Every structure is written in C-alpha cells, then in structure tokens.
Amino acid sequence: GLGLLLPTSHAVLRVWLANKHKPWIEAEYQGIIMENDNTVLLNPPLFALDKDAPLRYAGEICGFRIHGAGVPFEAVILDKATGEGLIRAKEPVDCEAHKEHTFTIQAYDCGEGPDGANTKKSHKATVHVRVNDVNEFAPVFVEKLYRVAVTEGKLYDRILRVEAIDGDCSPQYSQICYYEILTPNIPFLIDNDGNIENTEKLQYSGDRLYRFTVTAYDLEIQVKPTCKPSWQGWNKRIEYTPGAGSLALFPSIHLETCDEPLWNIQATVELQTNHVKSLRKLCGAASGEIDLLPVPSPTANWTARLSVHYSQDSSLIYWFNGSQAAQVPVMNGLHAHEGLSDHFTLSVWMKHAVVPSKGRREEETVICSTVQSEDGYSHYSLAVHGCRIAFLYWPLLESARPVKFLWKLEQVCDDEWHHYALNLEFPTVTLYVDGVSYDPALIHDNGLIHPPRQEPSLMIGACWTEEKNKEKIKGNENSTDTGDNYPLLIHHYFHGYLAGFTVRPGSLESREVIECLYACREGLDYSDFDSLGKGMKVHVNPSQSLLTLEGDDVETFNHAIQHVAYMNSLRFATPGVRPLRLTTAVKCFSEESCVSIPDVEGYVVVLQPDAPQILLSGTAHFAHTASDFEAPDGVPLFPNLQITCSISHQVEAKKDENWHGTVTDTRMSDEIVHNLDGCEISLVGDDLDPEREYLLLDGAALQQRGLELVNTSAYLTITGVESIAVYEEILRQVSYHINHGAALYERKFHLSCTEMNGRYSSNEFTVEMNVLHNMNRAAHPNHILSSQQFIHRGHHLPPELSGHSLASTHNNAMVPSAATIIIVVCVGFLALMVILGILRIHSLHRRGMGQEVPGAAAGGHTSTGSKDSDMFWDDSALTIIVNPMEVRSNDRNLGPPGANKDMEEDDDSTDSETPDSPDSNDVDDRHIIGKSDSSHRY
C-alpha cells in the first residue's frame, strides 16, 4: 500500500523559572581610593545576594547601578553567580577637587530569561568614598622675589618672613615642614616658619647687597610602625573551584608575637556555612518521604505563622522562639499513610538554641504525634532536655506501656547545626547524628505516664496535655492555654532552628543514605597529621564547621595552621560566599605583659562550577506500518538512545608552548560519577488520546530500582537518582502504541534529562514517528477522497498523472492551488477567444449586409449562398487548443447555472473526441466550444 504522510507544524516554547525575589545588599558602604589608583576599597565588600539562587537568570546578579549626578565612579559585576562587584573610578580622581564622594548604589538580577524580562532591583545603599591624597605638589613661594632694606650695625630678630604653600589637599602633604638657605657663607639664618635674621652686624662699607636663595620643604614623615601581635600573610578572599578537593586556607600565614614568649597557643577556625543542603536526591534516598515543614502555601498553611529564614542555597529554615508551634492538619499530615505506627524514619536539621534559665531546664519538644493504625492508637514524641535528646514511644495506648529512649550528646547543646535521623523499628531505635549512629544510653519504662487522648494529632515545636493536667503545669512558663473551648494545654515549646524536617513512613532509611546526607556537606579539613609537630593537637567537630589547634611552639603552630583546608565533596557545589573566622588565645609567661591576638575574618568564595553538557542522541526520524504500532509492545521511541556527559573548562597554556592565553577543552568526565535524577518525554502538539494511543513502560521494573513513573496524556516522567546506563536502558524500553483502526499518521516527542536536582539540563532530543497506512484499508476513506478532489468523477487519472505518488506530503499540499490557477487561466483565455470570435462574426456580418446578392430582385429573398457567406469565418488565423481535463472541470464546476443541461449534452457528444494525451499529432482533433451539429470549426 501507499503511506500517507500529513504535514504538521509545531512550536518550541522555552519556559524560564519565575523571578520571585529581589537582590539584597548592605545598607551602607565606606570606601577609600588613592589618587593614583582607580579601584575603591570597600568595607564591607560589595556582594549582592538573591534568594532565587542557584536558578539561572533569576538567581544571578547582572550588575549594579550608581545613582547620583556627576558621580565619577562606576560599578562592575565580577561574578554573576556570587554577586561580587567592584566600584572603580571612570577617570583619575583628584583629592584637591573633591575630598569625598557620596552616592547610592543598587543591584539588579538577570530577570527571567536572556532578554532580561521582569528584572528585580535591590534597595539603594549609600556609599561614602574618601579620596586619599598623595604627595604630588611641591611647595611654591607666595612671592618669587623678596626685597628688604636694613640699617647697618644692628642684629635683627626678624628681617623678613618668607612664605610657601603646598597644593596637596591633606594636612599630611600640604604642610610646610621647614625652610633652608641654599646660598653658602652668608650671615643669615631662617627658621622653620620662614623668618630670616642676621647672624652678625652688617656694615654699609662692606657688602652693600646680599642675594641668596631660600627653599621650602613640605611634610613627609616616615613612621615606623610599632610591633603589633597579629597574624601576618593571609588573604581575606579565598577562591575555591568546585571539584578541586581540599584547598589550604592560610598557606603563608604566620603569627607575629613581638618577641613575647608564649607557652600555650590555641586557635579556632570557624566556617560559617549556616545553611542546609537539599541532598535527598543526590544521596539516593528513596521516595515517599513527607515534608513536615513545607513552604507556606494555601494547601500547607501550618507554617505560615513561623519565622522563616533563607540559607545561602535558598533552603528554608524555620525559627521557633519558644512560644510558637505548628499544628499539622491530620488530612495533610503523615496519618494518611499506612505503616507509620512502628516503622518510620525521622530526619531533621536542627540548631538548638541554648537559653540560659534561672531554674531547672525544661524539656523542649521537637515533634509530638498520635497516630491511628489498624490495631488502635500509638503515640511518639522527640524532645531535647539540656544536652539530652529523648524519644518517647507508646506502641499501643490501650494496652502497651510507654518506653523512653535517652541519648546524652554534646551536639544537642553546642548551638550549632547538626543533622539528626531517627530510625524506629520497634523495639529497636537508632539515632544518627551527623551520619554517626548512636545507641540509646538509657531506656526507661515510663508506665506511670497518663496516656494522651486517642485522637490523631501532629504538632511540631511543642506538645499537648490533657485538661486534667492543666492546673498542675499551668504555672510553667513554657506552656500556653489554648482557651476554654479547647481542652488541651500546649507546653514544652522548642527554642531553636529546624529545617528539612521529613518523615518516611513504612520503611527505614539505610545507613548509607543517612551517612551521605551528612557527609556530602562542605567543611574544614586537616589531612597533614603525619607532619604534625610535637605537642600539637588538632580537633575537628563532627559537622566539620569548627577546627581547633593547640600547641606551645610558635614555629610548629605556624606550620600546622598552614595545612588547615576547605573541602567540598560536591563536584557541582553551590556557588556563593562562606564566611571564615580565625580566633586565637595565647598564654604568656608574664601575665602582665601578655599579648592579645586580634581575630582574622575572611571569606571563601565558591566559584561557579563547570557546567556539564548532557547530550542525548539517537535516531530522530523513522516510519513503521500501522500494524507495528498496533502490536502489543508497540514501537520503541528511542531504540538506540545514547546519553553522554562532558565538561567544558578553561585550560591555561603551558609555559613551554609558543601560544598564549587559554583554550576551552571539552573532555568526557568518566572519572566523575554522573547520575541523572529525572527524564521527561513530552508531546509536540495535541495530547495523547487515551482511547486511540498511549505510551508503554514497565512500572514494576522502575520500582525495583527505586524510580518513580508518572504517565499522563501530556507527558511521561521518570524521577530518581540512577546512573546514565540505567536511564539509557529504561528509556529504550519506552514504546508508542496505537489502537487498531486509529487514524493517526504522525507524532513528535521531546526527550530531556536533568541531573543535580534539576540544576543541569540536557539538550531537547526530538523524535518524529510516522505511521504508514495501506490506502485500500477502509479505515481511511477520507484521505483517499481528498487525494481525488480535483479529479472528475467517473474518469480515470490521465496517463501523465498516473506516475505520481499520493504519499508525497508536499505534492498533495500543492495540488489545490496549482489546479485552481490552471483552471482560472484556461477559462479566462477561453472567454477572451469567444469574445474575439463573436466580434469577428459580427463585423463580417455587417460587411455582408452592405453588398448586393444576385437574384434578390427576382426572388425577393436572399440565397443560401449568402447565408453561408455570412456565417463563414476563416479560422486560419485563430486556433484554440484546450486541455481536455481542465475544460471538463471548468465546464462542470465554473459554468453558469443555466448552462448545466447544455454542458451535459456537450459532454455526451464530445467524449469520443477527448484526446488521451496532449501529445496527440492530430491537428483537427480539437475540442468544440458551444453546441453545433455542423462540421464547422471555430
């Protein structure tokens, strides 16, 4: 059969994420610029932050704008990802013209796409810039020549005073330091104020005229700095390239003690990350977890009243102030999921704020919940009490006794961020803190606790108690009464920060995943333990945010601190600024003269990582018969799909090479393990019709690999972290199926994949599939008729058209317009010829009327020969040849309504005269226009 291909059109629409937040900068900056320099040194440094980071465009800073009339400065962006900027002078500044400049600055992001649409601007910050003077002007005397006359024989205290001025703007360089007489052997002196006096009595009989030269010197004092104990040789800004491993923070630092003998040195390096990573996908955590503290929305409004903070990677952090709690609705909480009662995993980032209290420390509840299961009600709560963390579990409120598991950990009360994961598989409970597992220190059987009410409830940041216990604990400061209409009292409020609070019901998180959730974080590192000097101690806290060194020798201590490094195990780390602080405490032999070492403050700038290029390739166009698509397995969409990943990075030229500069090198990153986290197959054009077509993929195979499948009429998505090889295998199994008899001819699909939580996307791979149908199949009569809409009914195709294939999309599209043009041209030409013929006959008839015909007087009538001569038309000068097929179409479709009957008669009478081909050699075989029973030709 012939395959019918229908022309289609499609449009590609790229959607960028919305720009929700404005950039943020400091409110005020102080700057200094030297007269011979063009860079302004700002305090604090110029950085703009955007909560939309790390989104492209919306989370990037495109630049800064300076507001003010005649401001001789401009602001440039150094790094769009980190928002680092620089203020510099447009032209050399002059302290003598303006000592200070004040203006405002504003940051703006890159909007929602490459065109900069919906750009948001920060508030305006005030910038004060002071121009520091340099000694560029020499002193100049007020008068070029001084003249004075004196009386002989006298000693004067001041004969005259010379004055010089300096053009520099600062007192340091504009002040005249002293004067000096350059001419030797003269009886005069000059002091520092320019007063000239004589050193001996002058005689008129001697020299009557003295001429000498005086010069002035401006002030230039070189001050030798006093020794100040401090750290020397460190850089405030430290740049880190993702994937570089460990980077030494202070490679050239040394401690200056000003010769003060020390017997103990203790230094603490603190990396202030203060943000939470969303690493569940990256670590391969299984799906099914429930976010207990989601972003406030109409469907999740229980977090709307909590104080929200944003970390540097835009993660949500909730602050509980000791009087707030979040009541999670049962319908949206974890109670709608089965299997939570005795098997689940709680995971949370927590920074417990230790609040000094006058009396006994109160228990603070992190989460409190009563769960309904098939067997009845169970209850559990997680709380902190001082440096202890407690988990209370009540397997069955009706019969079982409650059990409390206790851990005493310093991480609970050190006012730092830690990751907590609790696995419950009753009666076994395991607590992971920063990826390290801890067994309970104590297990109490609290059988005397009054059971809570048997009603499903979930509260975060506090817990509730029954009405009968109100009077007992009403005097407690850490409790609030909910009112007379509500029989519960809320107490044991939590004080601190919570983020990333999730629960996974029904199954436990593996040890590997929990360790990865913590271990993937950035932090401080110390690896040079082999060369650690005698008496040196190094301690790193579990979160790797605090590193402490202790020693007694300055040289050994300097060597040790030079090996403190920053590490980030993520190949594609989140760019941004990480504040850094070094605090030092020393002990001297003499307490009275002991020195103090000021703190060192800097920051680590994580640069934008080299973006990986994920390339999807394969067969982009193919056609199959309809029977193949109607088979139970359908036709695979991506039978030979290839997924590759490469990284483009800058490589500097080697010194021994002749060329200079940098080149862009693209290398296959096989040494880096790449895992995709999702792929989407979308349709071009209309959605799938479930009654006629659908996509096939084995969902059971995906579940075995821990992947999720969403298959709708508009798209098919696969989510979950897996290797490239696994995704290739799965996508090659996706097939397209159509039902028997469905009139479908063409489909286009887009495939795209992502990695790193959707941060990096692949190219959009398009596949076009054509369905080939047999023309003899009754399922497609409309398309057969449409191909014949310009063929006269009852007639076969002429031989000159019999060789054309109806499967050509372009030919079919061109038939209607071409036939219409030919018909119009032929009809117009025919009408013109008919009009010319009528005019010719009419003119001949008029000439014939003016001539006498023989026999007219005798017979009184004209002869037959006269009539024939009147009707005779010499056709030697006019020949009309008409395409027979076009004439038939025109006669039938374009003729006047009243001529239909005559045209039918003409058709019957001229069928035998229609030529089989326009190549006929018979000149007399011509189509007759009009109705005539004679042999005349026109």
UniProtKB/TrEMBL annotation:
Can you tell me where the transmembrane regions are?
Answer: 818-839
Record-linked InterPro entries: Cadherin-like_dom, Cadherin-like_sf, CLSTN_C, ConA-like_dom_sf
Annotated spans, Disordered: 887-938
Q: Name one GO cellular component term.
A: postsynaptic membrane
Q: How does it sit in the membrane?
A: Single-pass type I membrane protein
**Domain Cadherin positions:** 25-141
Assigned keywords, A-Z: Calcium, Cell adhesion, Cell membrane, Cell projection, Endoplasmic reticulum, Glycoprotein, Golgi apparatus, Membrane, Postsynaptic cell membrane, Repeat, Signal, Synapse, Transmembrane, Transmembrane helix
Which stretches are tagged as biased composition: Basic and acidic residues? 923-938
Q: Report if keyword Signal is assigned.
A: yes
Tell me one GO biological process term: positive regulation of synapse assembly
Q: Per the record, where are the segments of Acidic residues compositional bias?
A: 903-922
Q: Where in the cell is it found?
A: Cell projection, Dendrite; Endoplasmic reticulum membrane; Golgi apparatus membrane; Postsynaptic cell membrane
Annotated Gene Ontology MF terms?
calcium ion binding
Described purpose of this protein according to its UniProt entry: Postsynaptic adhesion molecule that binds to presynaptic neurexins to mediate both excitatory and inhibitory synapse formation. Promotes synapse development by acting as a cell adhesion molecule at the postsynaptic membrane, which associates with both neurexin-alpha and neurexin-beta proteins at the presynaptic membrane. Regulates the balance between excitatory and inhibitory synapses by inhibiting formation of excitatory parallel-fiber synapses and promoting formation of inhibitory synapses in the same neuron.
- Write out the similarity annotation: Belongs to the calsyntenin family.
Binding partners and assembly? Interacts (via cadherin domains) with both alpha and beta isoforms of neurexins (NRXN1, NRXN2 and NRXN3). Directly interacts with APBA2. Forms a tripartite complex with APBA2 and APP. Interacts with low affinity with KLC1. Interacts with SLC23A2/SVCT2.
Q: What is this protein identified as?
A: Calsyntenin-3
Q: What is the lineage of its organism?
A: Eukaryota, Metazoa, Chordata, Craniata, Vertebrata
